[in-house]
Write a structure and sequence with these properties.
By secondary structure, the chain is of the alpha/beta class. The protein has a single domain, classed as Rossmann fold, CATH 3.40.50.1360. Strand 11, helix 7 and strand 12 form a beta-alpha-beta unit. The longest helix has 23 residues. The two termini are 34 Å apart. The N terminus is likely disordered.
């Protein structure tokens, strides 16, 4: 079970999902097989001195001070499992309270292992997919058949295997000239069935680029100034293809729960800037994520938090 809201998660040698199902950690068998156990505070590697075959190279870094709560894990697997368990927990609570669950997912390479795991890992079997509405945070202006389509990635990993009703799947038709208006209308109409005050997304999963962008909210782009729309077109000159449709700050920040999954060494510099600097939102768009009446949680692996 995930920890109580706001409570720090204990660091363990096994992932949260493994612990939740009462299983054995991947590292707990190392001693049985003749290998030393992996320390929770570092990685075991072959030694290049006379101290033995293995040595601890990296201690766990301090938890960075980021807006919202921060969950820090030794390895990416722990962060991925924690996000999945929080999605399931939020989904079950929302279905009990409202009868449905509105989930917005991001594309890209970072969350793909999470989506795969949610289809095959018994720890996530309680996810109420048949009561879930699935939304896409942002989309490239390409047909769904294009390999670069975020919806295509998510459909192949989740929609095709979860049993979610197709009428509850809401892709962005980003190749249409009025795609942003169409998506906004669909969001307002579908969420409008909820009681006033609860007509919002329940869980938005975001990532972060090493330039500080999130969704398709890019540094110095026009979408950063949009304050009266749920979705809009935007351009990112440094990405391919540059034309996108994205959810906006007003929609994302109204969500009940915002999860931000950040993994890997390439993100460490930006995590450090956010934690220690005073850069404006126009330079680091993810700093514009600030939920109104909701919860924000970062899920980091040690590499993303290790600076210097």
């Amino acid at each position: 079970m995930p920890s109580a809201r706001g409570a720090p998660r204990p660091r363990t040698n096994c992932s949260p999902a493994t612990a939740a199902r009462g299983g054995t950690s991947r590292d707990s068998m190392r001693g049985v097989l003749g290998y030393p156990a992996r320390c929770a505070s570092g990685d075991l590697r072959m030694s290049d001195d006379d101290t033995g075959p293995y040595r601890i190279l990296d201690e766990m870094p301090p938890t960075p001070r980021l807006p919202g709560s921060v969950s820090l894990f030794d390895h990416a697997d722990g962060a991925i499992d924690a996000v999945g368990l929080d999605i399931v927990s939020q989904a079950k609570a929302c279905v009990r309270a409202f009868g449905d669950f509105h989930l917005a997912l991001s594309g890209g390479s970072t969350p793909m292992p999470l989506y795969q795991r949610m289809m095959i890992d018994p720890a996530f079997r309680d996810m109420p997919w048949r009561r879930t509405h699935l939304w896409i945070v942002d989309e490239r202006c390409v047909p769904f058949e294009d390999q670069r389509s975020n919806y295509r990635q998510i459909a192949e990993l989740i929609v095709d295997h979860s049993g979610i009703p197709r009428s509850q799947v809401h892709p962005i038709h980003a190749y249409e000239p009025d795609a942003d208006a169409l998506y906004e209308d669909e969001l307002r109409e579908t969420l409008g069935w909820r009681e006033k005050g609860h007509d919002r997304l329940d869980f938005v999963l975001l990532g972060m680029g090493d330039d500080g962008h999130t969704a398709s909210l890019f540094p110095h782009s026009d979408a950063l100034r949009v304050d009266d729309r749920f979705a809009c077109f935007n351009r990112g000159p440094q990405v391919t293809p540059p034309d996108r449709v994205t959810m906006t700050y007003p929609l994302i920040n109204s969500a009940r729960f915002i999860g931000i999954l950040v993994l890997g060494k390439k993100k460490a510099g930006m995590v450090h800037r956010i934690a220690t600097g005073a850069d404006p939102v126009r330079d680091i768009p993810i700093k514009g994520i600030s939920p109104i009446g909701g919860e924000q949680r970062w899920y980091l692996d040690a590499d993303a938090a290790r600076w210097g």
